[in-house]
Amino acid sequence: MRLQSKLILFSAATKVIILLVLVMVLPLLINRIALHSTDQRLLQKKEEVFDIVEQRGIDSFLPDKTDKAYGSYNLLKEEFISMEPIDPIQINNRIENTLRKVEGEIVEYRVLSLAFELHGETYLLEIGRSLDTIRETSNTLQRYALYFLFGVVILTLFLDLAFVKVLLRPLSLILRKLQKIAHPDAFKPGPIPSNTSDFVYLNDTINAMMGQVQEAFRKEKEFIGNVSHELLTPVSILQNRLENMMTDPEVPDSVLLKLVESQKTLHRLKNIIQALLLISRIENEQYLKNERVNLRDLVQEVVDEIQDRAELREVKISTSVPDHFMVPYANYSLLFTMIFNVVNNAIKYNKEGGSITISAAKQGKKLALTVSDTGTGIAKDQLPKIFTRFKRTHAPDGESHGLGLAIVQTIAKFHKVKLDVSSELGKGTRFSFVFKV
Length: 437
Hints:
Elements lengths: L2 H54 L13 E4 L5 E8 L7 E9 L2 E14 L2 E10 H49 L17 H50 L6 H31 L7 E4 H18 L3 E5 L5 E5 L1 H17 L6 E9 L2 E8 L30 H11 L3 E7 L3 E9 L1
Parallel strand pairs: 7-9
Antiparallel strand pairs: 1-2, 2-5, 3-4, 4-5, 6-8, 9-10, 10-12, 11-12
C-alpha cells in the first residue's frame, strides 16, 4: 500500500474513532448542559420574581389574604410559577425533577423550590420548566452537534488529503525520476523542489548512490572492452597454431585427434566468451535501437539461415507472418539473434519429422510473434530456470553452453518485449514475443 494511502487511512481512522467517542459522550454532555442552562434560567426567573415582590409587594401575587396560593402556567404548560404561604418551618432550597398534575394531565417538571420570609410571613416559591421541553432542546442540540461533527470530519479529511498530496509531492517526483531510468547512464542528478529536509536528504542520497552506480558501469564497460581483446585474441592465436600443427604431415594420427579435440574446446570457449560479451554489451545498452524492422523479413531470414539444420533433422518449418507487421525503434541484428536462438533450440530438441510454426498476430495495439514446436517439451518445475545462465534443462549435447535463452531474455528486455513460455512434456514448447508498436 502506498504511503499516501496509509496516511489518509490513518487520519480517517483516528477521526472516525474520535467521532464515535463523541457520539457516545455527546448525549450525556448535552443533557448536562441543557439541565445546567435550565437551572440558570430558573434562578434568573427567581430573581425576576423577587424584583417584582420588592417593587410591588407580595400583593402582586397574593392580592387577597384569603387566597391560599398563586399559580401561573403558560399556554403549553411548558413553564409555571407558584407561590403560597407556608408554616414557618425549615425548608431546604433545592432544584429537582418532580411530577405535577396540570388540568388532569401529569407533567414532569424541573422545579426550583425556595422558601423565603416577608413581613413575618413565610412563603414557598416554586418555578418549574417542563422536562419534555428540556429534552426537545437537548435533542435539537445533539442533532445539530452531530451534523457539525460530521461536517468537520469530512472537511478535515479533504484537507488532510490535499495536505498529504502536497507534502508527498517531492517523494512522487523522486519515484517518477527513478522509474524512468532504463539505464544508469540515463539518470540525471538534480535538486528536488522541497523544503522538507527528509526529502532533500533522500534525493541527495539517491544522487550520490546513482553517481557511484554510473562510475561502476563505466568501469565495467572498460573491463568488457579489455576482456574482449585480452581473451579473444589469445584464443584466436591458439586456434591458428593448432590449425598449423594439424597441417603438418609429420604429426601422428593420435596427436592429430587430440589437436582436433583441442580445437573444439577452443571454439567452445570462444563462443562462450562472445555470448557473455554480447549479454554484457546489451545490458550496458551499447547497441542502438534506431531501426524499423519488418517481422516477416526478419523471420524469413532466420528460416533461410537455419533451413539446412532443420532438413538434417527432418524438421519442417512453416511461417505465417503478415508483410505489414513493423517493429519500430529496434535493432535488427539483435532481434535476428533472439529469434534464431529460439528456432535453433526448437530444431535441436525436436523429434525427427517434427514441425516448427512461426506465426504473428495483432493483440490490440501490439504484435505477438509465436514460435511453437513439437519437441520434447520442458517440465513445469524447470520453466522458471530456463533463462538462467549456464543452466541446461536437457542432457548436455556437446554444443550448447546454456547461454542461448539467457541471450534471448536479455534482448527481449532491451527491446521491452514481453516474453512468455509455455511447455508440456512430450508435446512441445511455445515461445511468445509481444512487441509494442
